[in-house]
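Okay, can you check this protein?
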Amino acid sequence: MVQHTAPPVSPPNAFDPYQITRPDPVLFKYYFIMALLTGPLFPITFVPLLFKYETLRYRFDRSGISMSWGLLFRRETYLTYRRIQDIHLTRNLLQRWMGLATVSVQTASGSATPEMSIEGVLAAEQLRDFLYSQMRGVKGDSAAAAATGVADSAATPVENGDEALTLLREIRDELRRWSAAGGPP
């Protein structure tokens, strides 16, 4: 069961990803121009892009990102920040001219394509930086403890039901004691 908490309050002019729910209207213009470039296939390419634009929804919360779109075939994707492996920001010539970018979020799913592509956000660099900070914030807690050599035996993994992580930390700490003592007792 996923608990949703209220997003933090941001200063008035600061970038707030929690307020992003729909793509910017500039994305519609981009889709229209891209469909026009197909020439006589315009109706065939524009109609699906129109439906995608009209139904595209985003939701950012403390634990992850949700994206959904589709009229006949509804697609919904939810990614927790913990699953994010890499984030790419791409822009073609037309997107640069219009101030758009595509933020591609990749996971360790084994697929060559991104798990989620966030389109229609004008502040793409700030969104990428936000996602990196969230990704590192989730992973950084255990990485910081490993870098300092401090074991968190009473930390959150046991509270979250992740006994395997706790066991691996205990094994790591025992191996460090052995190497410091010159071998097993």
